[in-house]
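Exercise 4. Each item below gives a protein and its sequence. For each, produce the structure-token representation.

Item: Lipase maturation factor (Monodelphis domestica).
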Amino acid sequence: MSSIYLWISSTAHITHNRCLVRKKKLFIENYFNPFNLTSFPKHCLLFLPQTQPVPNPIAYYLHQSPWWFHQFETLSNHFIELVVPFFVFLGRRMCIIHGIIQILFQVILIISGNLSFLNWLTIVPSIACFDDAALGFLFGSQPGGVKDRVHKLQLEDKPPVRYGCLVRRLVNISLGVLVAYLSIPVVMNLLNSNQVMNSSFNPLRIVNTYGAFGSITKERTEVIIQGTSSLLANDSSAVWEEYEFKCKPGDLKRRPCLISPYHYRLDWLMWFAAFQTYEQNEWILHLAGKLLANDPETLSLIAFNPFKGKDPPRWIRGEHYKYKFSRLGGKHAAEGKWWIRKRLGPYFPAVNLKGLKNFFQSRDWPLPGQK
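Answer:
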């Protein structure tokens, strides 16, 4: 039963995401697994370090790796996530190997990107792969110590199996069978090229599919929030100044942040918004309204406010840019730039508080600046 629990636990944190390569959605699991059961996208990890939600400095260097290294990463992912989980059924030694491999795999993911606490949580079920003998080296061997007391307990005669123990075993087996049965549609969804994320397949909601994000693309786009004090938004002489978020790419010369296991939720939401439209993310106009009012709570989520100590901006707009890492040793890197960007166009038009009034009222949102 413990083996069933370990397998279910180790796969419970597998998320089902898709990688968009050559305009075809390709399945990836456990946040960054570029795998599809009907195709073999060996080049997916060529883009992943650059296009993940919040890259860290290590991702910059991983992105510069040769193509064969990315193919090796992909093959390793296939093996670790499709073969290694079954090691828990192959006896004590293989179960320990499973725990070691899974923990090392999650540590690599932690190092390669800012994925908040997700991979840290995934390590927890793998700890159960190690029994007392495997963890004994962590404790001293002095008489009366933890290791000595456990050893004495193990030498004691085991009491005969009682009726209550048999009932508990029967309940455990029944629960295992129930979870296995409820997992059938989840596994079928896993094998489907049009798989559904963040969904339940039964009213009990015991076994579900979920994920941190739904897709990874070949290109990275960013929404850059800008403000101006100009009376007219379309004035050619207007000076637009950029807000800087705490972790997401913005300033080309700012080193990518390293915050795991901490999580900047607003930065992640900006990543989602960048490959959608502002109509699909109305909250971003709510954010613009708060910035127009210099709302202190909202500004606490921002790393740099260009209007700090000044009057609030009269207009806020969103600009859409394509970002990519500078080439290591190249011209832009020599200038101290971690990123290169190209403007794609407006993301949302310039707005002011007066123009947002009806928008806020229609959604029963309190107007910014009003208590």
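Check: The first strand starts at residue 16 and ends at 21.
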